Every structure is written in C-alpha cells, then in structure tokens.
C-alpha cells in the first residue's frame, strides 16, 4: 500500500484529516528548514568562536609565558600552565623549553553529550596550535595549546534539542488549534449534510439555523434559499403541471380537430376532435406522415397546407376542404402555426381545423338573400322610376296644356307630389347603396371656395323663397386646393342646408368652413351649418342621425321627408373619415357640424377666378349689410383682394361713412349695398348717393337675396351699376365689380393674350377628327360660339395644318387613322420646342374612352385638357374657357364629373350666365328613354344643344356616311383585317352615339372590342347583327327626315 | 675531559628531569652568565640585553648568556655569592657585597648624576631646616639619587620630615608641582628635563656630589683574556656601525619612539674601580636604610 499526499487528497479522507495532515507537514517542513538554518548559523558561530578562542589564548599565553621563561622560573611556569589549563575550553596546555623539557597540563574533563553523527556533521576547525616564545631575538621555548570542543558541541546539541522541541510543540499546538477550529466549523456542515440528505429524501420543509463561521453560515443561507427556491419551484411546477393537464384535456376534448406534426411531417399529436372529423383514431394517426393520411381535398389543397410541403414558416389561416377517411369532403377553416423552441428553431407545426360546413351553408344563404335584396332594390329602382318619370313627365306636359284652374291645381299637386316622391325614392336608393357597401368615393382635385359657392347657390332659390338669408363663410386660412369627392361633399351640404332652410321660418342659414388641423399633406375641415329654426330637443339630437328617425313623428307630418337625409349624411361623412354632430336649442336654432379629412392637392387646381387685378389694390370700398355673416364674408373677400374696405351694418351708417369720407377729402370709389336693410334699405341709400352731386363719381352695386319685380327697373333709375344675387362666389363678385367699375377701371387684367382674345375676338380652332358626324357636330358647335374651326381628318393633317398657320387652340381626337391624337400632340410639342418664339398651342383631347387613366395619358402626351365624347355644348364652352383662362365666356362652370353625377339635384343656377341655347337640354328628364326605331331623337337633339337644324344636317351626313362605313366593316371582316375593322367600328360607334342610336352603337362597340381581341369568328356574327340593326336604323332615319 | 663533559651532561639532564631551580651558570657549559640589575621587567630586560649580548658574544668570541634574577634581594645575593661571570649592576658596591670581588672594567658613558632636594620657586622654604616636620616626597626607597642621597643629607642634619613616596621619579615631581608636598627628593637631570617640559619653576635647596652608580664588572674567576675580549667588544660597540645599530635598537625598547628624536643610545666607556669609591663610601656610611632594586 503506497501512501502519497496526492493519494491522500484524492482518497476518502476527511477534510479535517487532510487539513491537519497538510498543515502539519507544512509546519514540520518549515520548522525543519528553520531549524537547519538556525543550526547552521550557530555552528558557524561556534566554529568562529573556537578559532577566535584559540587565537586569543595564544596571544595571551605567549607574553605571559615570556617573563618566567626569561627568568627561568619553572615554578611560575608550572603554575601558569596549570592556571591556563583550568579553563574549560582548554584540553591541554604545555610549555617546552629549548632543551625539550615539557611542562604540560590537561584541561578539565568535559563529557561530550552529542552523539558521534552530530559531531561529525559539525566539521569543527583545527583546535590545536603551538608557537615559540622569543624575547629579544632569543627563543626560550614553545607554548602548545589544544582546545576542547566539548562545550561548544554540547551547547549546539542542547540548542538543537531545544529548537526541535519548540518546533514540535508549535506543530502540535497549531495542529490542535486547527483541529479544534475545524471541528467547530465542520459541525454545521455535518448538520447541513444531514439536512441536504433529508431534503433529498423529500423533506422540502427542512431549514437550518445559520451558525458557525460566516463561510459556513453563508453555505447554510445558500442551502436555505435554495431549499426555498426549489420548494416554490416544485409548487409552481405542480401548478404548471395542473395547468398543462387541464390544457391537454381541453385540447383533447376540443370540438376542433387539433393535431401537430414535427419537422419531417410526422404526426405527433392528434386530439379527439381530429379523430371525429377525419375518422382516424389517435393511435392510427400519431407516428404516421401527415401526407399519408391524405387530409385535404386535392382540388382545393393549398401549397402551404399542413403536410403539403413540410412545415410552413409563417402562421397561416385559410379555408379549404378536408377529406375524411371515407373520402367525404368537409368545408373547414384551418389555422396552422409553426412552433419553435426557445432558440427559434422550428420544431413543427400545429394545425387547428374547424368544421365550418354548417356556417358556410348559412353564409351562402345570407349572401343569396342579400344578393336577392340588392337585385330587388335595383329592380325596384328601375320599376319605380319608370312610372315616376311617366307621372312627372306627363303632368309637366299636362300643365303645358289649357287647363281649368281646378285642373291646374290638381295637376300641380300631382307634379309636386311626384317630385317629392322621386326625391324620397332617390334617398332610399342612395341609402340602400350605402348600406349594401356599394358606395365608392371618387376623389378629384377641387377648389374649395368655388365648389362651395356653387353648391350654396343651388340652394339660394329655396332660401329666397322663404325670405331667408343664406350666407356662407370660409375662413381665410382654409386651404383652397383640395382633393375629395365633390359630389358627395355637395350632397352632404345640400342635405344639411336644405334641412336648415326647411326647418327655419325666419332669420338666416349660414355655412361656415374652418379647419381643425392642417398639415402639409392633409387638412381636416370643420363645416358648420347654422340656422335660426325650430331647433332639436337634447334627447332627440342623438337620434336624428339614425336611419328612419326624425325629431318626432309630428315633425314628419309637418315637414315631410324620409328621415334618411341625415343618416345618409352621417354615413357619407364617416365614409370620408369624419364625424357629424349637432348643437341645438329647442326654439333657438341648430348648428350641424361635420368634419372631413381631405388630402391637399399637390398642384393648384385650375379655377376660373383670376387673381384680382392690380387696379383693385388699395381701392376705397364701402359695404353695407345688416347680416353679420354677410358682413364677415364681404370683409374676407374684399380684404383678400387688397381693397381698403369699410363695412357698416346699415344704410344710415353707410351714409354717415360717405359723409365722413367726403369731409376728410376721401371718396369711396365703390359702394356695395345690401338691398334689404332695416330703416334705410339699399335702394334708399343708392337714391341718396345719386342725389348728392359730390358723390357723382361713386359706383354703386346692389347685393340682393331675392329679386322682386321692379327691382331691376329701380336699379336702372337709381344708376346702380350692377346688381348681384346672393349667395355669390368671390369670382362672381369680382366679375361684377370689375364690370361695374367698367371702362373707368383700368383694363390691366393679368389675363393671358389668348384669354383676352377669347373674350374679344373669334378663335381659330384646329379640329382633328376622323368621324364625319363628330366633325360636323364640333364644327357646328364652334361656329355657334362664334369661333372659326378648321377641320383635319387625322393627326398627320393636324400637324401639317399647325405648321402652315397659327391657331388659338386645338381639339384633338385621340383615335385617328394615320396618326393618332397623342402622336400628333407630341409632334406639335416637339415643333414648339424647336421654335421657342412660337406661342404654345393649347390642345384639348376628345376621346370616346371614358376610362380612368385616359386623362393622365393625354396630359402626359402634352395635352392640356380632356373632353369625353359625345361632346356637349356647355362642356365644350367650359373647357375652352378653362383652356384660355376666359372667365365670362364660360358656358357652364360645373366640372364635367360633378355635372354627371349631380343629376337633377344641384341644378338650376348652372345655366344662368350662359347666353347660348344650351338651357333646354338641362330640363330633359334623365333616364333610359327607350329608343324608338333604333335611335333616340331627344337624346340626339340634346346632344346638339337642341339645334334641330344641326341635327338634321348630322342625320343627313350619317345617312350618307353610315353605309360606307358598314361596307368597310364587312370588307374588313371578310379580309380578316383587324386594325381596319377596329377603326371602322370605332368610327361608326361614335356616329351612332351622336344620333342616340344606343343599340347600334352598343353593337358597334362590341364589334370594336372583338376586333381588338382578334376574335374574327364572333366579330363576323356581330357584324351581321350590326348590319341588320343599321338597316332598321336607316329606314327609321329616312322616315323621320321625311317626317 | 670527555668523562667530565659526560658527567656534566648527565648532571644537566638529571637536573632537567628533576625540574629543579638549581641550574647553575654552567648549565650550557661554554656560555658565561651576564647578570643585570633588576631594572625593568624580565621581558624588557631580555629584549634590551639579548641583542647587545649577542653582538658582544660574536665580537668577543665569548658566549654570554643573560641571567635575570627574580627579585632585587636575590640579585644582591647572587652577586654576593659570585654567581654571575659578568655583571652590570651597583649591587656589588654595597657594604655587604664588597667581598664578592667583582672588578670594574666599564660603565655607561652617561651614567653620572646628582641628587637634589627641590621646592617650587615661589616656596617660602629657603633652607633644609625649614623642612623640619614638613612632608617631603621621594620616588621610591630604591632611588639612589632621589632618595638615598637626599634622605641621607636630611638625616645627617637631623631634620625630621614626613616621608612620602610617589612610586617613581616624575610622580614625586608631579606631587611637588601640585603642592601635595613642599619639597621633593629628585635626580637632578630628570628634574631639569621635567621642569623644562612641564614649565615648572623650582629651586634647589640641597644638591649632592656627583656619583656614578652602575658598572660593567667581571668576576675575579673569569680569565683575564676573556674579560679583556668582552671589555673590548663593549667599549668599541658604539663606534662600530653594527654595534651602534644594536644599541639604538635596544634604546628604542626602553624609550618609546618619539617623532624626530632618536633615543639616546647607550655608550660604554672604560672605567676603573676607583671611580666608584665615593659610592662604596656612601653605602658604608649612610644613615638611610638602603634598599636596592
């Protein structure tokens, strides 16, 4: 058995033994080293001492012996020898005279205590010496000396034992102390060990009181906290296990099929729901590849369906068809979620499948019901409108005939009731459309002030009929260029203002527009419609925005209405991201507010209001109006123009201001007077001004809410330069003011030369159009407007014409043979770029494509504006005005899009300024008047602005041109020339549209589409149908011309 | 002769073996003993005389061996018994030893001196009589110039003084200087040197005749040619460079070397017995109880 320290340390030896042994060994080692060092030092000391003693003895002995030697006194010599030898260190002292006679003495006997080995290790020096005694050069004898090392050796030996004893004693004491300390320190550790054992055996409540040195106490504390942690951990583990079991139970018992697969697509779990749905038991499913189970209907299987291609990376939720074991298909919703370990590595996928076949059936039923409802509504719309058209149209005709007073009364009542009924039906249809989610917004850039003014204006007559002030105000900081669905915004306004007028007996209705928030991209408008009407009770004010609700039933009886208007408003506002609410006091009036968040237009919206001329800058203007809202409006407009406006609330104040100005040497250049004011009305003030010679240079304008008979005559007699009906747009006011100031005002307007030309001279207009009918229509319209059209048949000719002579404007058909409108425009723009001196030619696109994106395409090609064919006179006039910046030359300021959708709702004022014969067309009831004998005479007449002569002319051209076109179509079909066929069908379609031959134009359109697709077999059939329809149309046309 | 030598050798060996103190002048046969007064310690004596004797032995061809007595009385007794062949001493001049018969053949050239009784110059004492009952300091009882001569003079004049001994010459002088004693008995030459060195002003109350004290003598039994050879060697020694060198070295043993000043070496000169008649007379007649070194 070998015993090594390392072995001891590794072996099963207690810590105490290890420590004691190790420290004992270390102590002994250190002690031995110390002992060795000390002994070595002492030995060296003793050696030196012995050598020194020998030397000293000799030094002393020689002179001491000299005296007696000289005298030869042997008794003294003997005594001295003996005396010297008595010293313990001397072993032998001897004197020998010259004759060799020795006198010697031995030192005291001293026993050597140290063992031989010890003495041998001391290596003591030579201890013997002999020296002659010489005095005065004579040798008397020799002294010899030997030292006894025993005392030194004994001293060293005793010292050795003393130190060894101290070392051993120290070692023993230190080991004993170590042992004691360790025992007391280890005791708590034994307790700790015992407690840990108990803890390991399940006694989790065991804790130890912290005793002993801090290290042990820390151990115990650590044990206690560990025990606590483990105990709480175990508790939470138990809870979590409980939860897990519950969760597993829930999953297992869930009615949904829940299963999971690992990365390889092997099924790892399969609950009861899955077994029920698919018919595989958990035992059958688990462990098998999911693909093998064939859980999905192959036709509807998705690429990422569970088991389709391993596991998906992202959660997916979809509906599909599950295939059961028996092959039955079940509609299901599937949610598959990949699950990952803590490190984010995919582990598999969890799939939850829910049987939704019942739900689907219900959904389908509901959808069908909804579809049926919508279809029913559409049908109803058509079915109700058609007889309503009849009722309204016929009563209108009836009213034009000779009637008795009673009959007229009845007929008017029928007409009014019909119109009211139509309005209600429109509301209901609108509401249905919104409810069905079919409301689509069509945002377009628009100028807020202009659009608002136009909308308000349509309501002016209503207000004026009840002698109500209708005023509106837009805060100056409200941005003007916005993007929004102007039709729908107008609808909201018309509704709210209409209501306000309806429920207000006297006072005013005011519209105020402010902003809530303005950013660089968007603006939130806040619009308030305030009236002084009957008001709404608090408890009702929340209800009124609900569908089919009015303040109370009596209101309905008294004021009529479906109660849908506000509901529609609310939905429209909400649809546009705003909100609507009302502040009201019963009997004091209501204020309806709504907010709209609109985008701001990136580029300024073109408008008809030119910037106010420099001439107005600083012009002294006096305005009088008793209505506060109107005063604010006037102030806002006038201030914006830069005029020095003084605004007063009544006629007396106006007179006082005039007087004050005159005395201060100032004169008002222009006076704007409200016609109806208390005390001194506008007419009276105008009269006084007229009578005052000092005010002769003053221009007076009257602003009236209504025009009473005789007013105009009074204006003329009073020398009123101009009168304007409220509400007016700022541009109307500007126009009126500029006209009123007339020749006296400087004509230095900032209009472009073209615009000035437009107002003063005839325009030379380049028309590029390949369709003969359209050519004729446009030429005629332009001529009627007093312009000079020059017609070309295609783009190429147009470019040539442009190069040969100057034009003011060009109307360009987009689709033409040889060179289309876009290419021609590009050529013209390029030519302009080559000749910088040449004036830029405004080009307007004429296109049959009413598709979105056309406009952009045209503008991108370099065109300035865009008109959809068939071209209507008012639209053409408006477009020309727009293009040339001409203001009063405009035929109809309403933008085409607005016009189309506004239908009858916002009509009435639009044509007021127009002096051409466009008005009758507006009164035509819109609808699907059935074409009679293949074409609609009314529509055709409408299209040419009611110009029967033009229509006859057009029909004549058509009758000549159409057979040629038909022949070309037949030839193209026979030859299979699709481009030719496309172009001919397109041209014919345009002509047919102009004369209102909807059936034929529809066929031609279809043919064009087929030709474009290259479907010649279908085109052939359609061409034959078109031929037959054309024959029928030609016959009726010839008949009607004859008629 | 051979028998005699053998007998002597046997006796010598016997004596050595016995370790007795009775080895005589014949202990080395051919060497003659040279006794010297107990003058300094035996070692100093040996250091002084051994080189000189070695020189003289070489020059004279007479082997001399230094013999030092243990005490003064022993030396006196040895002189009386004639145990030294040659002698450098004054013990042969005392009354009891006049019978020994040693004949003077030389002396140290400088060995002439006088004794004095001195007081400090400012002392009120003008005559020896004034010393009556006063304390007088002397070197020691064996001092010839400083005690034997002055004390004898005082006793002859009937002047009783309180005697004090200082132990040596300069000690007595120092006590006088310090005023411990009113007067002192001194060797005139030594006093002069002391006064000069220590700047002491003194006055001599009494002064003795000149005396020579130590003499080189030979025992009457020593053959005349041997004495002659030894005498020649001593007398010529200071004239021989080698001898002078030896003398200088021996002088240095007694006088500690003083910087820039060589010790004054011995110089032996011829002398006769008559030169010492005054001292023989003094010793015969003195009232002082004589002690010799």
Short summary of the structure?
Chain A has 34 helices and 26 strands. By secondary structure, chain A is α/β, with parallel strands linked by helices. Chain B is of the alpha/beta class and 293 residues long.
Structural class label of chain B: alpha/beta
| Tertiary shape of chain B | globular
Shape of chain A: elongated
The average pLDDT of chain B is 84
Strand content of chain A: 15-25%
Strand percentage of chain B lies at 15-25%
Structure summary, number of beta strands of chain A: 26
Number of helices, where a helix is a run of at least 4 consecutive DSSP H or I residues of chain A: 34
Low-pLDDT ranges of chain A? 743-760, 886-932
- Mean pLDDT across the residues of chain A is 78
Question: Would you give an account of this structure?
Answer:
The complex is a heterodimer of chains A (1043) and B (293). In chain A, strands 10, 11, 12, 13, 14, 15 and 16 form a 7-stranded mixed sheet that branches. In chain A, 53% of the residues lie in helices and 17% in strands. With 293 residues, chain B is of the alpha/beta class. Chain B has a 6-stranded mixed sheet with strand order 2-1-3-12-4-13. A 5-stranded mixed sheet of chain B has the order 8-7-9-6-10. Chain B has a two-stranded antiparallel sheet with strand order 5-11. Chain B is globular and about 60 Å long. The two termini of chain B are 40 Å apart. At the A-B interface, helix 2 and helix 3 of A face helix 2 of B.
Question: What characteristics describe this protein?
Answer:
heterodimer, A: 1043 residues, alpha/beta, 7-stranded mixed β-sheet, 5-stranded antiparallel β-sheet, 34 helices, 53% helix, B: 293 residues, 5-stranded mixed β-sheet, 9 helices, 13 strands, 19% strand
Describe the secondary-structure layout.
The complex is a heterodimer of chains A (1043) and B (293).
Chain A (H helix, E strand, L loop, with lengths): L4 H6 L4 H57 L2 H12 L4 E8 L4 E5 L9 H7 L5 E8 L2 E10 L2 H51 L13 H40 L3 E6 L4 E4 L1 H7 L3 H4 L4 H4 L22 E8 L5 E12 L5 E10 L1 H44 L4 H31 L8 E4 H18 L3 E6 L6 E4 L1 H17 L5 E11 L3 E10 L6 H4 L11 H7 L5 H11 L4 E6 L3 E12 L19 E5 L3 H14 L2 E5 L2 H13 L6 E5 L7 H10 L7 E6 L6 H8 L3 E4 L4 H12 L11 H8 L3 E5 L3 H13 L3 E5 L2 H10 L4 E5 L7 H14 L8 E5 L6 H7 L4 E4 L4 H12 L11 H7 L16 H5 L13 H7 L4 H28 L2 H17 L3 H16 L2 H27 L1
Parallel strand pairs in A: 11-13, 17-18, 17-19, 19-20, 20-21, 22-23, 22-24, 24-25, 25-26
Antiparallel strand pairs in A: 1-2, 1-4, 3-4, 5-6, 5-9, 7-8, 8-9, 10-12, 12-16, 13-14, 14-16, 15-16
Helix pairs in contact in A: 2-3, 2-5, 5-6, 10-11, 11-16, 12-13, 13-16, 18-19, 23-31, 24-25, 31-32, 31-34, 32-33, 33-34
Chain B lengths: L1 H17 L13 E5 L5 H19 L3 E4 L4 H10 L4 E4 L13 E6 L3 E2 L1 E6 L14 E4 L5 H13 L5 E4 L3 H10 L4 E5 H11 L3 E6 L3 E2 L2 E4 L5 H13 L4 H14 L13 E3 L6 H9 L8
Parallel strand pairs in B: 1-2, 1-3, 7-8, 7-9
Antiparallel strand pairs in B: 3-12, 4-12, 4-13, 5-11, 6-9, 6-10
Helix pairs in contact in B: 2-7, 2-8
């Amino acid at each position: 058995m070998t015993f090594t320290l390392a072995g001891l340390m590794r072996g099963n030896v207690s810590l105490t033994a290890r420590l004691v042994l190790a420290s004992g060994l270390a102590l002994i080692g250190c002690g031995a080293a110390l002992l060795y060092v000390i002994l070595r030092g002492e030995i060296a000391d003793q050696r030196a001492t012995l050598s020194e003693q020998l030397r000293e003895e000799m030094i002393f002995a020689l002179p001491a012996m000299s005296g007696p030697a000289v005298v030869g006194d042997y008794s003294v010599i003997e005594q001295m020898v003996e005396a010297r030898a008595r010293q313990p260190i001397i072993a032998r002292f001897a004197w020998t005279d010259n004759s060799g006679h020795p006198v010697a003495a031995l030192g005291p006997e001293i026993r050597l205590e140290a063992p031989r080995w010890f003495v041998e290790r001391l290596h003591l020096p030579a201890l013997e010496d002999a020296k002659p005694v010489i005095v005065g050069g004579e040798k008397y004898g020799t002294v010899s000396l030997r030292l006894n090392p025993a005392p030194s050796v004994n001293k060293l030996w005793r010292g050795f034992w003393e130190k060894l004893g101290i070392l051993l004693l120290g070692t023993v004491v230190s080991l004993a102390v170590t042992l004691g300390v360790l025992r007391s320190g280890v005791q708590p550790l034994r307790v700790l060990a015992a407690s840990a054992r108990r803890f390991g055996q399940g006694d989790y409540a065991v804790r130890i009181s912290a005793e002993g040195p801090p290290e042990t106490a820390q151990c115990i504390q650590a044990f206690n906290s560990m025990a606590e942690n483990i105990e709480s951990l175990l508790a939470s583990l138990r809870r979590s296990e409980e939860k897990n079991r519950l969760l597993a139970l829930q999953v297992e018992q869930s009615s949904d099929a829940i299963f999971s697969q690992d990365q390889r697509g092997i099924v790892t779990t399969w609950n009861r729901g899955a077994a029920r749905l698919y018919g595989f038991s958990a035992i059958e499913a688990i462990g098998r590849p999911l693909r093998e189970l064939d859980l999905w209907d192959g036709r509807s299987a998705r690429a990422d369906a569970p088991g389709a291609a391993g596991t998906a990376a992202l959660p997916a939720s979809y509906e599909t068809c599950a295939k059961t074991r028996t092959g039955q298909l079940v509609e299901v919703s599937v949610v598959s979620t990949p699950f990952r370990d803590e490190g984010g590595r995919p582990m598999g996928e969890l799939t939850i499948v829910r049987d939704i076949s019942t739900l689907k059936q219900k959904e389908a039923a509901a959808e069908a019901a909804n579809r049926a409802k919508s279809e029913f509504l559409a049908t109803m719309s058509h079915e109700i409108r058609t007889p309503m058209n009849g009722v309204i149209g016929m009563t209108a005709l009836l009213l034009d005939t000779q009637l008795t007073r009673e009959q007229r009364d009845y007929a008017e009542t029928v007409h009014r009731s019909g119109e009211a009924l139509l309005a209600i039906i429109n509301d209901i249809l609108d509401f249905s459309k919104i409810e069905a989610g079919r409301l689509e917004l069509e945002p377009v850039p628009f100028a807020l002030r202009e659009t608002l003014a136009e909308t308000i204006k349509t309501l002016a007559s209503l207000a004026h009929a009840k002698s109500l002030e209708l005023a509106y105000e837009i805060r100056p900081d409200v941005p003007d260029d916005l993007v929004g669905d102007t039709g729908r915004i107008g609808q909201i306004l018309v509704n709210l203002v209409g209501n306000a007028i309806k429920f207000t007996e006297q006072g005013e209705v005011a519209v105020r527009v402010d902003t809530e928030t303005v950013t660089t991209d968007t603006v939130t408008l806040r619009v308030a419609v305030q009236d002084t009407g009957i008001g709404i009770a608090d408890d009702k004010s929340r209800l009124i925005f609900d569908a089919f609700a009015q303040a109370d039933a009596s209101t309905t009886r008294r004021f009529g209405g479906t109660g849908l208007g506000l509901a529609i408003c609310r939905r429209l506002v909400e649809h546009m991201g705003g909100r609507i609410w009302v502040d009201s006091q019963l009997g004091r009036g209501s204020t309806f507010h709504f907010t709209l968040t609109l985008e701001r237009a990136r580029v300024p919206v073109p408008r008809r209001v030119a910037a106010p001329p420099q001439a107005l800058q600083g012009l002294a203007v006096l305005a009088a109006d008793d209505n506060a809202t109107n005063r604010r409006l006037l102030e806002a407009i006038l201030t914006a123009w830069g005029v020095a406006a003084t605004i007063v609330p009544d006629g007396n104040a106006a007179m006082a201001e005039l007087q004050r100005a005159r005395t201060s040497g100032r004169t008002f250049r222009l006076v704007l007077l409200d016609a109806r004011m208390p005390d001194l009305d506008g007419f009276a003030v105008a009269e006084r001004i007229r009578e005052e010679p000092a005010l002769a240079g003053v221009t007076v304008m009257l602003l009236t809410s209504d025009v009473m008979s005789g007013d105009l005559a009074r204006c003329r007699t009073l020398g009123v330069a101009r009168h304007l009906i409220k509400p007016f747009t700022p541009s109307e006011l500007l126009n009126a003011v500029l006209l009123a100031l007339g020749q006296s005002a400087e004509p230095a307007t900032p209009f472009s030369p073209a615009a000035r030309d437009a107002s003063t001279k005839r325009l030379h207009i380049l028309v590029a159009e390949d369709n003969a009918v359209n050519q004729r229509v446009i030429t005629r319209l332009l001529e009627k407007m007093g312009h000079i059209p020059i017609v070309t048949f295609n783009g190429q000719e147009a470019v040539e014409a442009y190069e040969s002579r100057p034009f003011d404007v060009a109307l360009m058909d987009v689709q033409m043979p040889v060179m289309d409108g876009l290419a021609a425009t590009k050529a013209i723009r390029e030519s302009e770029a080559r000749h910088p001196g040449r004036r830029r030619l405004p080009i307007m696109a004429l296109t049959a494509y009413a598709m979105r994106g056309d406009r952009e395409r045209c503008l991108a090609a370099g065109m300035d504006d865009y008109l959809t064919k068939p071209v209507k006179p008012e639209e053409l006039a408006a477009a020309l005005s727009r293009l040339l910046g001409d203001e009063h030359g405009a035929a109809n300021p309403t933008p085409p899009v607005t016009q189309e959708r506004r239908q009858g709702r916002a009509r009435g004022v639009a044509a007021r300024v127009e002096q051409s014969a466009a008005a009758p067309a507006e009164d035509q009831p819109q609808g699907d008047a059935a074409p009679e004998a293949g074409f609609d005479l009314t529509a055709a007449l409408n299209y040419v602005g009611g110009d029967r002569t033009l229509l006859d002319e057009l029909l004549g051209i058509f009758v000549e041109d159409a057979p040629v076109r038909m022949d070309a179509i037949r030839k193209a079909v026979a030859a299979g020339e699709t481009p030719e066929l496309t172009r001919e069908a397109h041209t014919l379609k345009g002509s047919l549209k102009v004369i209102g031959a909807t059936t034929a134009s529809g066929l031609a359109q279809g043919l064009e589409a087929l030709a474009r697709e290259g479907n010649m077999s279908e085109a052939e059939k359609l061409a034959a149908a078109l031929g037959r329809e054309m024959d029928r149309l030609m016959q009726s046309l010839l008949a009607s011309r004859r008629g | 002769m051979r028998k005699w030598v053998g007998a002597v050798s046997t006796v010598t060996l016997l004596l050595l073996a016995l370790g007795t103190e009775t080895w005589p002048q014949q202990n080395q046969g051919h060497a003659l003993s040279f006794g010297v007064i107990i003058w300094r310690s035996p070692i100093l004596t040996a250091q002084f005389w051994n080189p000189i004797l070695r020189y003289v032995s070489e020059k004279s061809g007479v082997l001399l061996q230094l013999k030092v007595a243990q005490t003064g009385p022993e030396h006196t007794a040895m002189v009386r018994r004639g145990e030294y062949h040659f002698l450098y001493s004054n013990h042969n001049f005392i009354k009891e030893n006049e019978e020994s018969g040693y004949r003077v053949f030389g002396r140290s050239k400088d060995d002439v001196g006088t004794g004095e009784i001195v007081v400090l110059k400012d002392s009120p004492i003008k005559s020896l009589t004034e010393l009556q009952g006063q304390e007088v300091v002397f070197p020691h009882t064996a001092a010839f110039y400083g005690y034997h001569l002055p004390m004898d003079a005082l006793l002859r004049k009937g002047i009783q003084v309180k005697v004090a001994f200082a132990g040596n010459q300069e000690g007595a002088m120092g006590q006088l200087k310090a005023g411990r004693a009113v007067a002192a008995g001194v060797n005139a030459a030594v006093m002069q040197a002391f006064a000069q060195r220590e700047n002491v002003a003194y006055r001599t109350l009494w002064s003795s005749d000149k005396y020579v004290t130590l003499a080189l003598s030979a025992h009457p039994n020593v053959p005349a040619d041997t004495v002659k050879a030894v005498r020649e060697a001593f007398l010529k020694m200071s004239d021989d460079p080698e001898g002078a060198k030896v003398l200088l070295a021996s002088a240095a043993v007694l006088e500690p070397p003083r910087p820039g000043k060589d010790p004054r070496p011995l110089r032996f000169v011829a002398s006769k017995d008559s030169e010492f008649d005054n001292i023989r007379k003094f010793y015969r007649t003195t009232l002082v109880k004589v002690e010799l070194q």
